[in-house]
């Protein structure tokens, strides 16, 4: 049965009318009809999104599938912002300040000892004037100013002041293309965007961005008097997290209006500290550089004390000094200069100064502004203070010192 059945089936396939030839012709005709249908209907189906469309790659590469009509165009990104406008406005006025020292006494050769930054802030037909930090030109035998096109010119030191770490240079005006404008640092707010422009590590025209971290900070500084003695002083600064590195000193801290609101001066350089830099406020800078430009030095009334604001010490420290509850503002005397006016008058560390000649003292800035701008060297003033809770009035004959 098995043989028969298989033999029968085989014979019947070979001998059936049409056989394999009929099947082949039917398949061939079906394939041709299918191809013709695809040729005619494929564009219609692709247009309706019912199947993908294909385009030939004439370069011989792979075909690229497309899901619909495509086109290409150039895209222009507008990167102009408040920051870029501010930088464009101020940057040409920020220069490099090169400290040159003589190699030795027997040669006229000078070598670059260091480089900082400066700002061209004033110009006339003959000269232009640059403000920088005093420490940038400290110990220099010669000073040069370098512009953003790498041109260098000789600079003359007109005056310097170590109390506020400022100096004024004079250069020929014919190379100066831009003069910076000062803004009002008193208008600054915490969180306000600012940019620092300078020459960190010699990279000229570098820009870093940050915010105003705090206004009205006071930090201790060592100021050098005319007889080379060191006096610990307190300087008002702007705190910022804009990166300030060696070489930024003397450069510009700029608001988004393109105005210089501070002179970058120093940073806290400790391994565990990041983003704490300081700038001298423009409202402090302007009167100082005006006098340095005109007189070459500043001799100021002098009390001979190092101070800290009462509001900046912990409440426990104020309690130890027995400051009366009704005294909310004042200056705590930290140190008294040996032989100075305050020492001669009997002022002591721990005293809390609340007024000078009837002028109420609330902050360090109140004190220095009044002392330097309203009082005269040699003038006798009445200092009202509290010593361990007891009110005292002490007469002091003001001295005078040049901080160079």
What would you say this structure looks like, in words?
The chain has 404 residues and is α+β, with helices and mostly antiparallel strands. The chain contains 7 helices and 22 strands. It has helices spanning 2-15, 19-47, 82-90, 282-295, 315-320, 341-345, 364-374, and strands at residues 53-55, 64-66, 94-102, 110-123, 127-132, 142-146, 152-161, 166-172, 193-198, 206-224, 230-240, 252-254, 260-267, 277-281, 299-302, 305-309, 331-336, 352-356, 359-360, 380-387, 390-397, 399-402. The strands form 5 sheets. The chain has a 6-stranded antiparallel beta barrel with strand order 3-4-5-8-7-6. Strands 9-10-11-14-13-12 form a 6-stranded antiparallel barrel. Strands 16, 17, 18, 19, 20 and 21 form a 6-stranded antiparallel β-sheet that branches. The radius of gyration is 40 Å and the shape is globular. Mean pLDDT is 84; it is low at 1-18 and 55-64.
Q: How would you describe the shape?
A: globular
**Roughly how many Å is the radius of gyration?**
40 Å
Main sheet attributes: strand count, strand direction, barrel closure = 6 strands, antiparallel, barrel
The H/E string reads: HHEEHEEEEEEEEEEEEHEEHEHEEHEEE
